[in-house]
Predict the 3D structure of the following.
Amino acid sequence: MGVKRAGRILIGRGSAEKYLQEYQSGGGITMKPVMKLAFLVFAVAFLGGCASGAMSKNMVPKDLTVQNKHPYSVLVKVDGGRETNAMWISRISSPEFQAAIVESLTMYGVFKTVLTEGNTDYELDATILNLQQPWIGADMTVTIETAWKLTNLKDGISVMSENLSNSYTARFGEAFVGATRLQLANEGAARENIRDALKIISKKKL
């Protein structure tokens, strides 16, 4: 005697994907038309779409007021990022995070010259320590934890060392597809993180 699984509750991305595959292959799931439609809507909203990594332009803070603009050059280095697998979940890569920092420093004039290689007066190191992400959800909140260090290359003295943590929630209304909401949450958390770092740096008297 066959077992009907029409009313089964799906928990987590893995379980949802498993039963979506069963549904697509006709693997014994019996549903009414309305329930089938609801199931497919759920699948598209929470699992559908290929994942895209956070984009640098979306991690640049808006309307930032800086206290001091330093007449020096700075070298920006980033570590700890991860590349995005399109079949998995959105991540923040080191090159995109670095590009966002460079653009932010340049846009707001925190340093006169901002480079990613070459000889400079200062070196700014930013390391992504942790990226807390949800597997699934209507509203998705991402928390990024980073370590920032600013060093005077002339004498090797560290003038700033800060660990920062920032969160951002992407609401269901911002994007229907879950993969896109997670990308927006990644970008929002990184954007707030860069904002706080630049505020701290601009308060320094170099």
